[in-house]
Design a protein that fits this description.
It is built from six helices and four strands; from the N terminus they run ααββββαααα. The protein is mainly alpha-helical. The protein is elongated and about 45 Å long. Bound molecules: iron/sulfur cluster (2 copies).
């Protein structure tokens, strides 16, 4: 019997990608959208949810290093979540670098552990970029 078809990526809803102090970058436009979604002023949103880093503004994390907009494993702002959250794991650095893909596999159980970088990029082209 042949192996069942395998997906290069299938999110397991584990919430691990909401982990990462300083790495959940948000633009001013995203801050405005997130604030509006939560019915807060931009200043209120900024003081409650945003902190600065050398890379720019990013979402605060809790003591475990998880984004404070993650509530019991679910994103409270899913419809308007930042670009970096919508793109993961198909981030430019991962699409460009096989070593980055191997690191991403360790963080994200949704990526097929045995997929090659070429398969990953092909799947992104066909299922994400081309959709
Ligand atoms: S780490 Fe991967 S599998 Fe887990 S929620 Fe994020 S995208 Fe889905
Ligand atoms: S904004 Fe949502 S998807 Fe992005 S890190 Fe926070 S909880 Fe996770």
């Amino acid at each position: 019997m042949s192996d069942p078809p395998r997906s290069v990526f299938e999110c397991q809803q584990c919430g691990e990608c909401c982990r990462g102090r300083g790495g959940i970058l948000v633009s001013d436009a995203e801050i405005a959208r997130l604030a509006g979604f939560l019915r807060l002023s931009e200043a209120e949103f900024h003081s409650q949810y945003v902190e600065s880093s050398p890379l720019g503004p990013n979402l605060r994390t809790n003591a475990e290093g998880v984004c404070i907009l993650n509530q019991e494993g679910r994103c409270r702002v899913h419809p308007v979540k930042p670009k970096i959250c919508r793109e993961w794991p198909f981030l430019p650095a991962i699409l460009a670098d096989p070593e980055e893909l191997e690191l991403a596999k360790e963080a994200c159980p949704g990526i097929a552990p045995d997929c090659s970088h070429a398969e990953f990029v092909k799947w992104w082209r066909e299922k994400v970029a081309g959709s």
